[in-house]
Amino acid sequence: MGKMQLVYLRIGSLAEIHAATALLPLSRGRRVIVRTGRGIELGEVVGPCRTHPVGQATTRVLRPTTEEDELLIRRLDRHKRRAVEECRIAMQDAGCSATLLDVDQLFDGGTLVMHFLGEVDEQARQITETIAGQYESVVQSRHFAKLLSDGCGPDCGTKEGGGCSGTCGSCAVGCATKS
């Protein structure tokens, strides 16, 4: 394994900057799958971090994105955009004073973090919970959730090359997301 490196990452719709540990060199602009305090997320490398102590970085780069990840991300983005629009319309129709700015979706596809402007009242909370539930039922499946947690089967990720056989595409997701 290589030497632990620190990089700055841009994460989420609010473009928060996080210092993260990485086991391989990453160039600026590279999209990566990361583990944050919220879960598994998509990040973008901003550049090297030379001032943050390695032991204090709470975000960890799991791996660069793959072609399969990018396809999944596009699919999740389509569903997220639909959920955001439905939520905005429902809130406007209900006369809610809060404004939905944007939504972060975690890479697991089952977690939405909503960002609002203004006070979120009970009615807005109920609307967002309903929309989030609909979104989750569309994008989540037991099969996908199992792949995220277990890979493709027993001993997934224990052989050299990072997967069961090194050729299993689902191992890339399963192995990278293990703690």
Describe how the helices and strands are arranged.
Layout: E1 5-11, E2 16-22, E3 31-35, E4 40-48, E5 59-64, H1 67-94, E6 99-105, E7 112-117, H2 122-139, H3 142-150, H4 169-177
Parallel strand pairs: 2-5
Antiparallel strand pairs: 1-2, 1-4, 3-4, 3-5, 6-7
Helix pairs in contact: 1-2, 3-4
Explain how this protein is built:
It comes from Rubripirellula obstinata. This is PSP1 C-terminal domain-containing protein. By secondary structure, this protein is α+β, with helices and mostly antiparallel strands. The chain has 3 domains: 61 residues, no CATH class; 71 residues; 35 residues, no CATH class. Helix content is 36%, strand content 26%. The protein has a 5-stranded mixed β-barrel. The protein has a two-stranded antiparallel sheet with strand order 6-7. A hairpin with a 4-residue loop joins strand 3 and strand 4. Helix 1 packs antiparallel against helix 2 and helix 3 crosses helix 4. The protein is elongated. The C terminus is likely disordered.
